[in-house]
Amino acid sequence: MSRFFQDLTPLSYAPESDGLAFRHYNPDEVVMGKRMEDHLRFAVAYWHSFAWPGGDPFGGQTFERPWFGETMEDAKLKADIAFEMFDILNVPFFCFHDADIRPEGASFAESERNFKEITDIFAAKMETRKTRLLWGTANLFSNRRFMAGAASNPDPDVFAWSAATVKLCMDATHALNGENYVLWGGREGYETLLNTDLQQETEHMGRFLSKVVEYKHKIGFKGAILLEPKPQEPTKHQYDYDVATVYGFLKRFGLENEVQVNIEQGHAILAGHSFEHEIATANALGIFGSIDMNRNDYQSGWDTDQFPNNVPEVALAYYEILKGGGLTKGGTNFDAKLRRQSLDAEDLIAAHAGAMDVCARGFKAAAAMLEDGALETAKQQRYAGWQTPQAAAMLDMDLSGIAGLVDPDSAGPQPRSGRQEILENIVNRFV
């Protein structure tokens, strides 16, 4: 173990422990016929855990990490520390952006060499480790060249640079046997319509994504291509606002059968939705792929990327995931970061362990609710009228035909209770 983690050892499932341990997450526990680890498919986010310096809009770096720096030696040390942490947490997956793992070079070619050297190190480590790559992605938002977007940028040179970067990251993800490839349009939007050609920008985004899908098939990548919806912050308005907006975008370019969504809890809240709403919408539209698990501070009104600690919220999210068939190639990526006052290595381990426990509790509650069946039975009863032959036939009639079904002497149908409070009480039995 490195000096950074010192005496920290791999965590175990120890419900009665007073130290660092899992109290609810038992990877080998079988739930609904499958190991919990295989259901939840936890992943560590490289960017927040190893690249974020602890700053905020009003203050700079608070973390002092031995790998912080702009040399390849720093990047190699970061990789060593990262895989030590993966071992301590016994996580099956991790995720990264290109800029998280390598220093920026003086040219594209130098950045590419740096990136390939680190991904080769990843490949060597993965030969003897458990942890695999859930997904890779490209950072097309941090560098000032992306201040007006990447695929939607008004400068064609930035469009080309972005395409070359995505190609590089897709190649690496494919070489590392990644399960998915994610595109997150951190600045694919606008600050003001006064300087924006919205039609051209969205057209270019669609063409860009089509080229990504074409390249996936060209190289034989078997993973899913995922888009991550986000409504705002840093831009005033982003084109991939929420799941429904993304679906409309995919339909416009004929990509609804090629691209799925990676849904983040914090982004769902910023869009004015709940996490479970976005998951249910993605399932209904057939584009659910994976999740980024975190939470926002509901008093701050922006994307604070905190580790999850609300079991009822998590349970409702996993309930919708289980109803849709579960996480297949997707996973539960902790797109979450320490608070800037949490400085120690132990804080990094404790944050992930606690989040994994919260997810395990929520997941087991969701599985129990689904197996109990009371919620689904109540829903079926509410829509039972549509199971009659007359009701089913009505969907194929014109308006005149439907109007003919109404008894002119009738006083009209009477409403029935939606029973929301009763259903919420059922949920509360489990969480």
From TrEMBL:
One of its GO terms (molecular function) is magnesium ion binding. Its cofactor is Mg(2+). It is an enzyme of class 5 (isomerase). Binds 2 magnesium ions per subunit. Mg(2+) 1 binds at E228, E264, D292, D335. The active site is at H97, D100. GO terms for cellular component: cytoplasm. It is found in: Cytoplasm. Its EC number is 5.3.1.5. It catalyses: alpha-D-xylose = alpha-D-xylulofuranose. The keyword Isomerase applies. Mg(2+) 2 binds at E264, H267, D303, D305. Its main location: cytoplasm. One of its GO terms (biological process) is D-xylose metabolic process. It comes from the Bacteria. PANTHER family: PTHR48408, XYLOSE ISOMERASE. Homotetramer. This is Xylose isomerase. The gene is xylA.
